[in-house]
């Protein structure tokens, strides 16, 4: 527990720190105005620039290449999301029935997490890259094996995955708009929703995506997917996002952005999941068009390219990526970075919460990443008492009431102590402590609610930072702090009304 003298020390050092930062920022602003006025906002890597727009820029990576320092250097420098190119697929994770191997999947996961990146999971169920034993099953035996696979793999990675491709490539090419024939499809048309329900039960924190190719414009195939997503949303089947692979040739469909937008309008996120573009005079331009389309669609949360260097690509000889075989940046790279930097610095608009909070009610706030509840540590009743996460007990020190401050801002009052959530000493720094304090209706005690696919982010009025579980911890007693809003699972909270 923090003592009073600790608190005084923190306040003193916070003031000193603030004075230093103010002086440093004033100096930096002056220097920037004089020297760098036109380029002050331009980030120099894809991930950093995308993050300025509230998005990620990722790459598919392969475990077998992680020992190559040129490769890993680019991954760590440029990208803030990773997808395993093959390592989390069915043949890799369950090579014989009921025997699960996660060694290479975990290598990709740890590569991403240790670099502060999001990890996209790819792919739980797919007609291709099935292990031999699954290929030879059918009917109920296959359905049960498939759902068990989803449950086991999603459980293994619970709390670590930003978004799962739950089902990959289940629609037919051509003009039918129908499902692809496959052993999975022959278990019954409801196999996709069964997979999504199993994934949600196993990892409630992950966004659940449907992912496909040749759906990158408005056409019969994408309309088939659209109709399925609309049906899922209307019946409450858990789906959060749609992935558009975007393996593109020398042209791009004129309806690319409009297609993303029509899916977003159904109430799901959209993501570009496997982008690569055939080499040619239009390559750089197509990469820019895709980037601009994503920035223009508020619910397009990020872009992933399918590999690092041309020599890493599955499209041998087509040189479809952003780095050449030596790891040098291509014109396509510059084109993407410029498009990202030209996109302005505002984060995408978010839809308001689906309904207003009930200011007469008491709520538990469950963290999306950890599944733990916002908690006044050790039932403190004093100013400065720590706020942590703890396993849900439903006790009064986990119950919170929203007190209206006007203008869309609320204080969160503890049922146990009567104190409110407070960013200590009006800090505006990342990782500053969130404590409880006497309700003074200060701007450091007021929070705006931002909808995150049914979860909420709480943005502090004074600092504009988000309430989060520090370091995405899943442990009891982990600190609650404020941090730059990047829509991480550890910044998202589910409200459960309990009184
Ligand atoms: O690792 C073995 C190697 O030991 C063996 O000698 C060699 C012989 O062919 O095969 C190697 O495995 C290959 C693996 O990639 C790793 O390189 C597989 O044969 C090959 O089939 C596999 O291809 C992957 C392909 O999916 C499988 O369909 C590609 O790497 C991967 O980029 C590609 O990714 C898919 C997405 O998952 C879904 N969307 C389309 C996309 C492109 O096809």
Throw out a few tags for this protein.
TIM Barrel, binds ligand G3I, 4-stranded antiparallel β-sheet, 12 helices, 8-stranded parallel beta barrel, disordered N terminus, Trefoil (Acidic Fibroblast Growth Factor, subunit A)
Write a structural description.
- The protein has 499 residues and is α/β, with parallel strands linked by helices.
- The chain folds into two domains: 46-341, TIM Barrel (Alpha-Beta Barrel); 352-497, Trefoil (Acidic Fibroblast Growth Factor, subunit A) (Trefoil), CATH 2.80.10.50.
- It is built from twelve helices and 21 strands.
- The chain has helices spanning 4-35, 46-52, 69-78, 90-93, 103-114, 132-135, 139-156, 191-202, 220-235, 256-264, 283-296, 331-341, and strands at residues 56-61, 81-84, 118-126, 163-168, 207-212, 241-244, 247-248, 269-277, 300-305, 363-367, 373-376, 387-390, 400-406, 409-414, 420-423, 434-437, 447-452, 455-460, 466-469, 480-483, 493-497.
- The strands form six sheets. The protein has an eight-stranded parallel barrel, surrounded by six helices.
- α10 links the parallel β7 (247-248) and β8 (269-277).
- α7 packs parallel to α8 (191-202) and α11 (283-296) packs parallel to α12.
- The longest helix is centred in the N-terminal third of the chain and has 32 residues, at 4-35.
- The chain starts with a helix and ends with a strand.
- The model is unreliable at 1-40 and 345-354 (pLDDT under 50).
- The site of ligand G3I has 9 residues, from loops.
């Amino acid at each position: 527990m923090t003592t009073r003298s600790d608190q005084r020390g923190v306040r003193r050092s916070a003031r000193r720190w603030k004075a230093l930062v103010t002086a440093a920022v004033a100096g930096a602003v002056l220097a920037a105005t004089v020297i760098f006025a036109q380029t002050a906002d331009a980030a120099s890597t894809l991930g950093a620039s995308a993050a300025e727009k509230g998005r990620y820029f990722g790459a598919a990576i392969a475990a077998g290449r992680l020992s190559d320092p040129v490769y890993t250097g680019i991954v760590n420098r440029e990208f803030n999301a990773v997808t395993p190119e093959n390592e989390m697929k069915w043949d890799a994770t369950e090579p014989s029935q009921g025997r699960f191997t996660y060694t290479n999947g975990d290598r990709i996961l740890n590569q991403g997490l240790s670099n502060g990146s999001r990890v996209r999971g790819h792919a739980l169920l797919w007609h291709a890259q099935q292990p031999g034993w699954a290929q030879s099953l059918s009917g109920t035996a296959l359905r049960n094996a498939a759902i068990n696979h989803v449950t086991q793999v999603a459980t293994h990675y619970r709390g670590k995955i930003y978004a799962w491709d739950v089902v990959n490539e289940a629609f037919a090419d051509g003009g039918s708009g129908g499902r692809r024939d496959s052993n999975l499809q022959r278990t019954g048309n409801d196999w996709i929703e069964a997979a999504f329900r199993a994934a949600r039960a196993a990892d409630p924190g992950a966004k659940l995506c449907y992912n496909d190719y040749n759906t990158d414009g408005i056409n019969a195939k994408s309309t088939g997917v659209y109709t399925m997503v609309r049906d899922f949303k209307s019946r409450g089947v858990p789906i959060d996002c749609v992935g558009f692979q975007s393996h593109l040739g020398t042209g791009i469909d004129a309806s690319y952005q409009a297609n993303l937008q029509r899916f977003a309008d159904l109430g799901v996120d959209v993501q570009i999941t496997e982008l690569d573009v055939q080499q040619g005079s239009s390559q750089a331009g197509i990469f820019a068009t895709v980037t601009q389309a994503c920035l223009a669609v508020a619910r397009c949360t990020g872009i992933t390219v399918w590999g690092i260097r041309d020599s890493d690509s599955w499209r041998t000889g087509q040189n479809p990526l952003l780095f050449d075989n030596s790891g040098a940046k291509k014109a396509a790279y510059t084109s993407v970075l410029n498009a990202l930097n030209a996109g302005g610095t505002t984060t995408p608009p978010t839809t308001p919460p689906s309904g207003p909070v009930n200011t007469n009610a008491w709520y538990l706030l469950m963290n999306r990443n950890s599944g733990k509840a916002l908690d006044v540590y050790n039932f403190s009743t004093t100013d400065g008492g720590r706020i942590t996460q703890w396993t849900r007990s439903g006790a009064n020190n986990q119950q919170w009431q929203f007190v209206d401050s006007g203008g869309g801002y609320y204080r969160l009052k503890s049922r146990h102590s009567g104190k409110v959530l407070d960013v200590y000493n009006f800090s505006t720094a990342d990782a500053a402590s969130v404590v409880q304090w006497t309700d003074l209706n200060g701007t450091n005690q007021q929070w705006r609610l931002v909808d995150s696919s049914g979860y909420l982010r709480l943005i502090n009025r004074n600092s504009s930072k988000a309430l989060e579980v520090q370091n995405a911890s899943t442990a009891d007693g982990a600190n609650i702090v404020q941090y730059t809003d990047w829509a991480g699972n550890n910044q998202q909270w589910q409200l459960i009304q309990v009184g």
